[in-house]
Amino acid sequence: MTTAAAPVQGTTHAGLQAWVDEVAAMTTPDEVVWVTGSDEEWTRLTDKLVEAGTFVRLNEEKKPNSFYAASDPSDVARVEDRTYICSVDEKDSGPTNNWMDPNEMKDLMRGLYKGCMKGRTMYVIPFVMGHLDAENPMFGVEITDSEYVTVSMRVMARCGTDVLRRIEGLGEAAQYVPALHSVGAPLEPGQQDVKWPCNPEKYIVQFPEERTIWSYGSGYGGNALLGKKCYALRIASVMARDEGWMAEHMLILKLTSPEQQVYYIAAGFPSACGKTNLAMLKPTIPGWKVETLGDDIAWMRFGKDGRLYAVNPEFGFFGVAPGTNEHTNPNAMATINKGNSVFTNVALTDDGDVWWEGLENMPEHATSWKGEDWTPADGEAGVLSSHANSRYCTPIKQCDILAPEYDDPQGVPISAIFFGGRRKTTVPLVTESRDWTHGTFMGATLSSETTAAATGQVGVVRRDPMAMLPFIGYNAGDYFQHWINMGKDADATKLPKIFYVNWFRRDEEGNFVWPGFGENSRVLKWAIERIEGKAAAVETPIGHVPTPESLDTDGLDMDPAELAKALAVDPEEWKAEIPQIEEWFAKFGDNLPTQLQVELDGLKARLGVE
Ligand code: GDP
Ligand code: PGA
Ligand code: MN
């Protein structure tokens, strides 16, 4: 949001002012600055970051008004083992979250926050997730001592004085999520700052009953841009449970058929499993068109007409850089090439541009994300120029294929929900569920190999229910029940159809069997034709999968044997999943909805498992 307003100091909202004063008294910054959202402020902050060495200004011709940053090598991804849901009652955080007593956690963190902003500026960022004109605008206020975070928040969320004025207009009763962030790196007088201040000790904490977020120690991504995963997923999922809606880790896309029929699709894949790419897909099948509404988060509620409507609460894309190129995601490339973006942990080329693995035009020389010389020979030796979780942060409004409905606070009616993960084996290209409850079972048992989006081992298969494992702000058993209830209370004929996809199956040589990216439009088409009752399918123990003829393969350069491999449902592989699903469900004890146990029993019976 760009307003010409001068920086405001303070607010007429007494509760908000009191919180800001309290945080300032605890963290003792040198000054407090209220973020306005103005262009002048962007220039001031980015200049300051350039001066500090955190940002390198990129070549104006290649990436106007854009910046390169390299983080501390220890601060590169979400820290799931340091992320807590501090509900009053431990059982409300459930078996999938870390928990600590909220009072104990607050005592501990107050100790860390004491004086933690010394020598720094404290920024107060009023923001709104979703539309300012929504019936109930979802306000937040992030306090941070990081200019990098402030600049990134301005890209990712609607921020500034316009938002603050709206909060103030609602009076003291205005609801907002207070979100406190510090990099945890106070400066002594005269002490030289580092390029990427952070603290080895990290806490990412949600207090669900109080709708409050406290984050400490990290400056990167979801750990620090608190509107995104912390608010729009963890806190919002709790609000959604209480108020009868859904906060999901899903992209939203608009699909138009050659007959000009319009469908909206939401898809939940774990981090770094293809949401941003699917959201901006360029179909390879003639006459089909995709437009984007969102690439990471969907808030969904039933409309008066009984259909499920989705809005994207975000204002920017925080996309995985490696693998992004003119072939895989031309729309993302066009978006970032317009500038106004921040690139973190990619490589910096000698002509002031950015580069990463998978991008065209490999440079002869670059500076790696670790600040080291990098040449193609290093690449051949397996040295990466960019961190696997390096990201571009870019305004959504720059996306040429942004659907006009993005600006509608009512959102769009969803026809299909896709779940998907990264599995080398077992999971076929696409499976259609029988009904909402079966689809909920597919989501609840979703599995995926871990990725570099979170710290820890990569490539380990884990259950990631609805791609929400790190983001459910309460007991995941209750979350499953919420999903089932949402379907039970709805008109079944108007519910979205649920599908399970896997773009990542491999052959014996380790190659992906399905070409993916733009070719995924073939799967979207099949799903729509299933909804319309037009496409054929084979019934298997896990659900309906395409017959090889029902999937549009016109112009697809793929060996039929490979296609069969992509679509195959191997009962032996699925039998091997059963003990893993049982072990997963056992975690929930009495909190597992009986309907999911019934679904599992049905699957076992169809597979002939005792
Ligand atoms: P997100 O984090 O869920 O939004 O995932 P992205 O869309 O950013 O993709 C993460 C990584 O997976 C990137 O390196 C992509 O290039 C890669 N990817 C995305 N879609 C596909 C696909 O259909 N096939 C294959 N093989 N890779 C994909
Ligand atoms: P994504 O989001 O990988 O799901 O797009 C960023 C993150 O994991 O923090
Ligand atoms: Mn993404």
Write the layout of secondary structure elements.
Layout: H1 14-27, E1 31-34, H2 39-52, E2 55-57, E3 67-69, E4 83-85, H3 102-113, E5 121-129, E6 138-144, H4 147-156, E7 158-159, H5 161-169, E8 176-182, E9 203-207, E10 212-216, H6 221-224, H7 227-243, E11 246-248, E12 251-256, E13 262-268, H8 275-279, E14 289-294, E15 298-302, E16 308-311, E17 316-320, H9 330-337, E18 342-344, E19 347-349, E20 354-355, E21 366-367, E22 373-374, H10 376-380, E23 391-395, E24 412-420, E25 430-432, H11 436-444, E26 447-449, E27 461-463, H12 476-488, E28 497-501, H13 521-531, E29 537-540, E30 543-546, H14 560-567, H15 571-586, H16 594-607
Parallel strand pairs: 1-5, 3-18, 4-9, 6-8, 8-10, 13-24, 24-28
Antiparallel strand pairs: 2-3, 5-6, 5-7, 9-10, 11-15, 12-13, 12-14, 15-16, 16-24, 17-23, 18-23, 19-20, 19-21, 21-22, 25-28, 26-27, 29-30
Helix pairs in contact: 2-4, 11-12, 11-16, 15-16
Bound molecules: guanosine-5'-diphosphate, 2-phosphoglycolic acid and manganese (II) ion.
Overview of this structure, please?
With 610 residues, this protein is α+β, with helices and mostly antiparallel strands. It folds into 3 domains: 14-55 and 79-244, 3-Layer(aba) Sandwich (Phosphoenolpyruvate Carboxykinase, domain 1), CATH 3.40.449; 247-314 and 403-569, Phosphoenolpyruvate Carboxykinase, domain 3 (Alpha-Beta Complex); 317-398, Phosphoenolpyruvate Carboxykinase, domain 2 (Beta Complex). Helix content is 28%, strand content 22%. The protein contains 16 helices and 30 strands. Strands 11, 12, 13, 14, 15, 16, 24, 25 and 28 form a 9-stranded mixed β-sheet that branches. Strands 1, 4, 5, 6, 7, 8, 9 and 10 form an 8-stranded mixed β-sheet that branches. Helix 11 (436-444) runs antiparallel to helix 12 (476-488). The longest helix has 17 residues, at 227-243. The relative contact order is 0.11. Residues 1-7 have low confidence and may be disordered. 2-phosphoglycolic acid is lined by residues 78, 221-222, 229, 271-272, 275-276, 296, 318, 320, 453.
